[in-house]
Specification:
This is Stage V sporulation protein AB. This protein is mainly α and 138 residues long. The protein has a domain of 70 residues. The chain has six helices and no strands.
């Protein structure tokens, strides 16, 4: 009985480590962290940034799995939501940039003149959608 439980725990932890390693490798490979370091002219600290991404993922999983309560978490939630939204948005844009989605679409649709409006529309739509989602919960 105990042997099967221990085996299941080892398999679960091993699978989690593999999936998390793959995800962090994907984030690093997309160049999100390197692009941030390049734009802020802090390329000498890129290893610190990569370690911070991994540490943040590990810490987030620990808080989620063990349901650790954060004091004054209600006030920190909007800050976390903003930072998580920025990160996910940058990740999506980096993936789209790697796949050359936007240049191909813009050339085919002949909409070069309206690019700033499209970007602004996407940002406003994402912001309104997030506000509706979070305010609906209250």
């Amino acid at each position: 009985m105990w042997g099967s439980q221990i085996l299941l725990a080892v398999i679960g932890v091993s699978a989690g480590i593999v999936v998390a390693g793959g995800l962090f490798s994907f984030i690093i490979e997309l160049g999100v962290v390197a692009d941030f370091a390049d734009r802020t002219h802090t390329a000498d600290k890129i290893l610190l940034y990569e370690d911070s991404v991994a540490f943040g993922g590990i810490l987030g999983n620990l808080f989620f799995v063990f349901q650790i309560e954060i004091p004054y978490g209600f006030w920190l939630l909007p800050v976390f939501g903003l930072l998580a939204g920025i990160f996910v948005g940058c990740w999506a844009m980096a993936l789209a940039e790697i796949l050359n989605v936007f240049p191909v679409f813009i050339r085919r649709a002949k909409i070069v003149r309206y690019i700033p409006l499209f970007i602004l529309s996407m940002a406003i739509g994402k912001g309104i959608g997030a506000c509706l989602f979070f305010f609906q919960r209250w």
